[in-house]
Amino acid sequence: MAPRKPSATPALGMYPRVRMRRNRIDTWTRRLVAENTLTASDLIWPVFVREGKGVREPVASMPGVDRLSIDLLGEAIGEAKTLGIPVIALFPAIDQAQKTEDGDEATRPGNLVCRAIAEIKRTVPDIGVMVDVALDPFTTHGHDGLLRDGYVVNDETVEVLCRQVLVQARAGCDIISPSDMMDGRVGAIRTALDEAGFQHVRIMSYAAKYNSGFYGPFRDALGSKGTLGGKDKGSYQMDPANSDEALREVALDLEEGADMVMVKPGMPYLDIVRRVKDGFGVPTFAYQVSGEYSMLKGAIERGWLAERVVLEAMMAFKRAGADGVLSYFAVEVAKRLKSG
Ligand code: PBG
């Protein structure tokens, strides 16, 4: 075996004069020496929206998560704001009947997501609204882009994404979040926004987004699982085997004008979060995705895990260097932080 590398932090002293447990002896000492903290300001809450009135439809594979009709958004998001959550991320569950091969609904100004943005801006003015850019909620095949002869074409998709961005920006969206993994999309989106006078709309790119099985429940929530069938997104999302490649993706997105970057999924990719934060020193976010939520929630519901694992997972993101976390637990976490 290769010799172990010397540790970065040498032991400063020796037992019995040094006793590490002294700093762990009671709650106030532990609080005093804590290296990381978690507050509601670190949280982004993903919200699913659907058509209808007064509809709160549970997502079967995500216990506790609902698809809400637009009229219920104000109250739910108002609560999130009161709890100190700075931003919500909006995801539309589009009726199957409105999905098409090319996902045209994505670029229609009065679509579900645009009406939802406008409603949130009207009812909860001081919360940030972030919206995904990708075609998967709108396509019959469930891919994030245009499918031509079985391949998701890049440049043609980027053009459509830019049109999608503009309807969302016009509706009042604050942060555009490209989750599609097309090459060159961040630069094209920045140009489209600037040319249309949206210099202040921010871009948080899904810079290192992996081709992951942990998105399963999300695809249930959007109804894109059936449409995607057994096909996967490996020709555009990253291979879970890779780490250096994530740094290159982040570098390109920053070069193209991303204001913030994201690593996704979260907990299985904390090594990537740390490398990105250390390598670039830019606002870095992690997405604790649907599958991570369902694993924890499912185990908690069965009594296999205690609820404290949720805060532990959140702290793990902070420790890895994330400036914030997208989490379906956001409201629950914010409530817990408030009650102390
Ligand atoms: C769509 C998108 C996905 C997620 C966010 N935006 C799924 C995918 O790429 O298939 C996943 C979120 C989650 O699992 O919670 N491009």
Q: What's the number of extended β-strand segments?
A: 12
Which stretches are poorly predicted, pLDDT < 50 over at least 5 residues? none
Which kinds of small molecule does this entry bind, naming each only once? Answer: ligand PBG
The proportion of residues in beta strands is: 15-25%
Any descriptors?
340 residues, 8-stranded parallel β-barrel, binds ligand PBG, two-stranded antiparallel ribbon, alpha/beta, single chain, 12 helices, TIM Barrel
What does this structure look like?
This protein is of the alpha/beta class and 340 residues long. The chain has a single domain, classed as TIM Barrel (Alpha-Beta Barrel). 37% of the residues lie in helices and 17% in strands. The protein has 12 helices and 12 strands. The protein has an 8-stranded parallel beta barrel with strand order 1-4-5-8-9-10-11-12, surrounded by 9 helices. The structure holds ligand PBG.
Task: Please give the structural blueprint.
Blueprint: H1 27-33, E1 43-50, E2 56-58, E3 66-69, H2 73-82, E4 87-92, H3 112-123, E5 128-133, E6 147-148, E7 151-152, H4 154-171, E8 175-178, H5 185-195, E9 202-209, H6 216-222, H7 225-228, H8 244-256, E10 260-264, H9 270-280, E11 284-288, H10 290-301, H11 308-319, E12 324-327, H12 330-339
Parallel strand pairs: 1-3, 1-4, 1-12, 4-5, 5-8, 8-9, 9-10, 10-11, 11-12
Antiparallel strand pairs: 2-3, 6-7
Helix pairs in contact: 2-3, 3-4, 4-5, 8-9
